Amino acid sequence: VRDTDECVLKEYLYLVLRSPLSLEQMAIRSSGGNYPSIIESELKKIIIPIPPLDTQKCIIEIVTKMNNKAEQLKKESDALIEEAKEKAEKMIIG
């Protein structure tokens, strides 16, 4: 089905295809070593949950908020690590 705009939001599809559920299904159906690939007939066998559009929008919003929070926490932890390094250097150097 090429016209998915009516039942699946692109952002939702992106999230689902990157989810462990989809990635595991792809891994099972893929072939190759260093650069695995999956043929179209196998790709069509992947089961993708498609909830109502309102639910998809809610999932997108929740995941976006979680990703933004994770990014914020990463920046904060990087800053704390840098601050700790600077303090340690000052203590060692004197």
Note down, in words, how this protein is organized.
The protein is 67% helix and 0% strand. It has four helices and no strands. It has helices at residues 10-17, 20-29, 40-43, 53-93. It is elongated and about 65 Å long.
What radius of gyration results from the CA coordinates? Answer: 21 Å
Euclidean distance between termini CA atoms: 68 Å
What structural class should be given to the helix and strand makeup?
mainly alpha
Q: Extract low-pLDDT stretches.
A: none
**Per DSSP, what share of the residues sits in E-state strands of 2 or more residues?**
under 5%
Average pLDDT, all residues: 90
| Largest β-sheet summary | none
* Secondary-structure element order, N to C: HHHH
Helix run count: 4
How would you describe the shape?
A: elongated
Helix content: 55-70%
Find the count of extended strands (DSSP E, 2+ residues): 0
